[in-house]
Design a protein that fits this description.
The protein is an alpha+beta fold. It folds into two domains: 113 residues, no CATH class; 181 residues, Glucose Permease (Domain IIA) (Distorted Sandwich). It has four helices and 13 strands.
């Protein structure tokens, strides 16, 4: 099992199961011990709900697991309500480590939540897909929820995948067949009316978990939308339907999602930047909104 997948299974399956079981076994010696377990578990669930990539398993679990935790926490209190408030001679010795870990995960969750807003003027765009349910894998204004944020030109970039009926981005955790990814082959629509100032095609799709760092955007299009430039990247080879210099209309088909460039699995990368250049690695990244909505990791968009 690859390291990223092992981390995902540990943080989003095994540890949540541990915190659910820990509410019951072993039974706390006092009510304070129960409260500390609940506090620790609640802080962890807050953290993983915000930063987790739930599209790998099911986006529904981001809601279901915290609800189950709350219900089990309330039910587990019946096992300790007749116990003393505190049976330990030293609260710090008995619960100090638990409290410290809880605060640690609470701080991480708070830091990630700071990425839910922005200060700059946003570029209003149309969502670049037609009917379906879509999930934001990377997005927001903090590195905890957006791996692109450290790059000046890509500060508010989005990585978009599509979800199946189970709320997962693919059939399987990390299938090798590109066609098992829901987003693969989906038509990408122009998010604005503007000019396709640059296009590039002819790059093959990568195998899963492999990337082409020599051509980071792979097959891509740069649109001029007013004063902003919009990069849409990782198209399928031979699918780009517009040429450089053409005027494109909002909602017009641009191409199909592939896995070319610096992409380990099928998704659409898009970011907006100011600077008036064709070089998508330069310029100043700016926020994007869709019907006034600023999308972050974990956001879902349903197009009827």
């Amino acid at each position: 099992m690859e390291i990223p997948l092992l981390i995902l299974v540990t943080t989003q399956i095994l540890l949540p199961l541990f915190f659910l079981m820990w509410l019951w076994l072993p039974r706390p010696a006092d009510r304070l011990g129960w409260a500390m377990r609940v506090f620790y578990g609640a802080c962890y669930f807050a953290f993983i709900t915000v930063v987790g990539r739930w599209d790998f398993i099911s986006s529904a679990l981001a809601v279901v697991l915290p609800v189950v935790f709350i219900a089990l926490a309330m039910l587990s209190f019946t096992r300790v309500r007749d116990r003393p408030r505190n049976a330990s001679a030293s609260v710090m010795r008995a619960h100090g480590l638990t409290a410290a870990m809880a605060v640690f995960f609470l701080a991480l969750a708070t830091r990630a939540l700071s990425g839910y807003g922005y200060q700059e003027t946003a570029v209003e765009l149309a969502f670049p897909f037609a009917a379906g349910t879509y999930y934001i894998g990377q997005g927001g204004s903090a590195t905890a929820i957006n791996s692109h944020y450290a790059d000046q030109s890509q500060r508010y970039a989005l990585d978009i995948v599509a979800l199946n009926g189970f709320g997962a981005r693919a059939r399987g955790l990390m299938p090798q067949d590109l066609t098992r990814y829901v987003i693969y082959g989906r038509e990408v629509k122009s998010p604005c009316t503007g000019v396709a100032v640059s296009t590039h095609d002819g790059i093959d799709d990568n195998r899963i978990s492999e990337t082409n760092t020599a051509a980071p955007a792979g097959n891509h299009i740069v649109l001029a939308c007013g004063t902003a430039r919009i990069l849409l990247a990782h198209f399928q080879k031979g699918s780009i339907a517009v040429r450089g210099g053409e005027i494109v209309m909002k909602g017009e088909t641009l191409g199909r999602v592939g896995n070319s460039g610096n992409s380990s699995e099928p998704h659409l990368h898009m970011h907006a930047y100011l600077g008036g250049t064709l070089d998508y690695t330069t310029g100043q990244g700016v926020p994007m909104t869709f019907d006034g909505r600023f999308l972050v990791r974990g956001s879902t968009v349903t197009i009827p």
